[in-house]
Amino acid sequence: MARPRIKDVARHAGVSEKTVSNVINDYVHVSERTRRVVQEAIDQLGYKVNLAGRHLRKGRTGIIALVVPELDVPYFAELARHVIREAERCSLTVLIHQTGADRDHELAALAGFGSTFVDGVILSPLALTADDLRDRAGAPPTVLLGELLEEGADHVAIDNERAAREATEHLIGLGRREIWAVGGRDDAGLGTAEARTRGYRAALAAAGLPFDAAALLPVDSFRMPDGAEAVHRALRAGGRPDALLCLNDQLALGALRALHDHGLRVPEDVAVIGFDDVEGGRFSVPTLSTVAPDKAAVARIAVDLLQHRMDEAADPAPADAPSAGVRSPQDLVVAHRLVLRESTEGSAGRAGERRRGEDGQA
User: Helices in 111-223 by DSSP H: which ranges?
Assistant: First the structure.
């Protein structure tokens, strides 16, 4: 049986093909009765909108790229699920690309992979610099995730410095004083790890606790083996923390294993808190306290912002138009919360996780 076309829907509904097109494209000047009759015809005939044709008529492909460092890191996998869902809402298809935190791969993504294949890019960079973002003539619209590298770029993230400060303050409030930062980086970089380290240091300073550079445990990557090895190495060197701030949940899960191997109890001997609220932390033993970014909101805001930029690129308003709209780059901060489980709360955590919002209230 031939696939139904717009003219078949129009004949079935007793309206013109133009009216069917107006209904499909949500044209506002269509009566509710007409809209209902056309929709019933669409449903009865099983008509499917040709999204490819719609996008091509607008000079687009209908494809956006989500570019992340590593696909098998749970945070990025969970984020990708949310981005795909939001893109479907906008009738967009998502191409997922992995860079391995390689600068050349990130630059290729920033340039749209050297073709007109994608209409826009959502990029989580690790190797790019602010200079890389300044000369982007001819590149597709791009929204950055993570830390802000350049004030001239659209950007969506949580306040990583504030979140790390809140997590460290919670550990200090539990009476912990020897707090290590697993994955910490004590430099002036613009990355997420640097921002979280600044928050950690700010909390120590506010509490009158000294900062010891040896309490920063550097890692090569933010995976479970790296967290385990960093903590193993520090414990073998004779260090004895009473709390760990881990800069993501993967590091925290690896740290839990290292503490167990050294006969240290969590949280009785060492309290542990991570970042990202990935699924594995809800099933670890003990369950993992964590900073939970609103991943659904990150995806929704990033897709909506990218859609806005793609619309601007396709139909730019004249510079002197009174209603040209906001064109300046957007730096949008998404909410986070502190989720408190057994790795900091002990047996109290088994009664159910507690959540603290950005105001610090349970």
Answer: 160-173, 192-206
